[in-house]
Design brief:
This protein is globular. It has 395 residues and is α/β, with parallel strands linked by helices. The chain has 2 domains: 130 residues, Aspartate Aminotransferase, domain 1 (Alpha-Beta Complex), CATH 3.90.1150.10; 240 residues, Type I PLP-dependent aspartate aminotransferase-like (Major domain) (Aspartate Aminotransferase, domain 2, 3-Layer(aba) Sandwich), CATH 3.40.640. It is 40% helix and 13% strand. The structure holds pyridoxal-5'-phosphate.
Length: 395
C-alpha cells in the first residue's frame, strides 16, 4: 500500500480512538434498541448507555445530565442556541453580540437572523486573536439577548477568556453561549465557574465519531428558554426531536472520558511537539505565527509564510503531510481566511498560511519529518520566486 501523508489536521477532525470504537460496537448490533422504548429490555439497555454518556458529559463541564441535549454536532448545537434564543427572547430584545473570528456555524445563523430583523454586533479581535473585554462591555445594550463567543478557535486555536466574559454577561443579565467544539476535552471547562448558559459540543475533534454533538442548556439561575428548531417526538425534553443514535452517543461519552483522563499529560506532550515544530520553522526568516503564542490549543500551530504562493505551498506539502489552510469547512471556497484577516493579516499572508493540527497519534519522529519537509518546500518556493523575478527583470 502507498504510504499516506502524515495526518496533521486534527482541528478539522480526528480518527476514532480504538477504545471509543470498541465501546460503540455492541450498540450497533446486540444493544440496538431505541432508548425511547420504555416497555422492554432492548430499550432499557440503550437508555442506560445514553444515560451514562450524558453523565460523563455533564460531569466533564460541571453540570447535571438533564442540562445536556444531544444533537448531530456542533453546527446543529450552534444553530439551536442562536436561533432558539432569538425565537424565545425576541420580545425582550433583538440584539446579539458575537465575534469576527467565529466558525461559520455561528456566523451564518447570525446572518440568517439579521435577515429576519435582528441586529448583530461582530466584535473585532486584537492582533493575537483575543477579544478586548472593554469592547464587549461597550457593545452591551438594553436589548442584547445573547453573547455568543467561542471557547477555542478552529483555525488559530486561540482561547477566549471565558470566565471574564461569563462574569460580564452575568453582571448584565445577558445569556452567554460558547461554541466549545474545539475546546471540550482539551482545556478545563466549567459552566458554573465560567457563568456559561449554553455550550455547543462535538465528538469528532476528540477521537469520537462524526455526526454527534450536544448542547448544554442551563436550567437554573437562570432557567434558559430555548425554542426548538426540530419538532417531532419530543425527545431531549422537547428541545431536539429525533431518535437518539445510541452508538454515536456512547462513543461521544467514551471520547470525553478518555480525553479528560489524559488531558493534563496530553496537553504537555502536544505543547512540546508544537514548540518543536515552531522552533524548527523559525530557522527560516519571515515566518509569522498566527494567534496568541500561549493562549491557544496545545496542538494548534498556524503560520503565515512570506514570499510564497499559498496554493503552491499546500501543493508542495501535500505528499508528506495532511494540513490545511484556513478552516477546513470553508477551504472549498478559495477565499482568504476571515479569521486571519480579522487579526489584521494582509490578504497575501492570509492566503499563504498553514494550519498544523497535531493530535493524539502524532509522534516526535513525524514532527521532525514534517518540519524538514516544510522547510525544504518553503526554501525551494522562495528560490523559484526569486529566479522568476530576476528572469523577468533581465527580459
Ligand atoms: C469551532 C467550531 N464550531 C463548530 C464546528 C462544527 O462542528 P460539527 O462538525 O460537529 O458540526 C466546528 C467544526 O469544524 C468547529 O471547529
Amino acid at each position: 500500500m502507498l504510504k499516506r501523508p502524515i495526518y496533521l489536521d486534527c482541528n478539522a477532525t480526528t480518527p476514532i480512538d480504538e477504545r471509543v470504537l470498541k465501546t460503540m460496537l455492541p450498540y450497533f448490533t446486540e444493544h440496538f434498541g431505541n432508548p425511547a422504548s420504555i416497555t422492554h429490555q432492548y430499550g432499557w439497555e440503550a437508555e442506560a448507555a445514553v444515560k451514562k454518556a450524558r453523565e460523563i458529559l455533564a460531569t466533564g463541564i460541571n453540570t447535571t445530565p438533564e442540562e445536556i441535549i444531544f444533537t448531530s454536532g456542533a453546527t446543529e448545537a450552534n444553530n439551536l442556541a442562536i436561533k432558539g434564543i432569538a425565537e424565545a427572547y425576541f420580545n425582550k430584545g433583538r440584539h446579539i453580540i458575537t465575534i469576527a473570528t467565529e466558525h461559520n456555524a455561528v456566523l451564518d445563523p447570525c446572518t440568517y437572523l439579521q435577515n429576519l430583523g435582528f441586529e448583530v454586533t461582530y466584535l473585532p479581535v486584537n492582533t493575537d486573536g483575543i477579544i478586548d473585554l472593554t469592547s464587549l462591555e461597550t457593545a452591551l445594550r438594553k436589548d442584547t439577548i445573547l453573547v455568543s463567543i467561542m471557547a477555542a478557535n478552529n483555525e488559530i486555536g486561540v482561547l477566549q477568556p471565558l470566565a471574564r466574559i461569563g462574569e460580564i454577561c452575568k453582571e448584565n443579565s445577558i445569556l452567554f453561549h460558547t461554541d466549545a467544539a474545539q475546546a471540550i476535552g482539551k482545556i478545563p471547562l466549567d459552566v458554573q465557574a465560567m457563568n456559561i448558559d449554553l455550550m455547543s459540543l462535538t465528538a469528532h475533534k476528540i477521537y469520537g465519531p462524526k455526526g454527534i454533538g450536544a448542547i448544554y442548556v442551563r436550567r437554573r439561575h437562570p432557567r434558559v428558554k430555548l425554542a426548538s428548531q426540530i419538532h417531532g417526538g419530543g425527545h431531549e425534553r422537547g428541545m431536539r426531536s429525533g431518535t437518539l443514535c445510541t452508538p454515536q452517543i456512547v462513543g461521544f461519552g467514551k471520547a470525553v472520558e478518555v480525553a479528560l483522563a489524559e488531558m493534563e499529560s496530553e496537553t504537555k506532550r502536544l505543547t512540546s511537539l508544537r514548540q518543536k515544530l515552531w522552533e524548527k520553522l523559525q530557522t527560516l526568516e519571515n515566518i509569522f505565527l498566527n494567534g496568541h503564542p500561549t493562549e491557544r490549543l496545545s496542538g494548534n500551530l498556524n503560520i503565515s509564510v512570506e514570499g510564497v504562493d499559498g496554493q503552491a505551498l499546500l501543493l508542495g506539502l501535500q505528499s508528506v503531510m495532511a494540513v490545511s489552510s484556513g478552516s477546513a469547512c470553508t477551504s472549498a471556497k478559495v477565499a482568504p481566511s476571515h479569521v486571519l484577516q480579522a487579526l489584521g493579516r494582509s490578504e497575501k499572508l492570509a492566503y499563504a498560511s498553514v494550519r498544523f493540527g497535531i493530535g493524539r497519534f502524532n509522534t516526535v519522529q513525524e514532527i521532525d519529518m514534517v518540519s524538514e519537509q516544510a522547510i525544504t518546500t518553503i526554501k525551494s518556493l522562495r528560490q523559484a520566486n526569486r529566479s522568476q523575478k530576476s528572469t523577468v527583470k533581465t527580459n
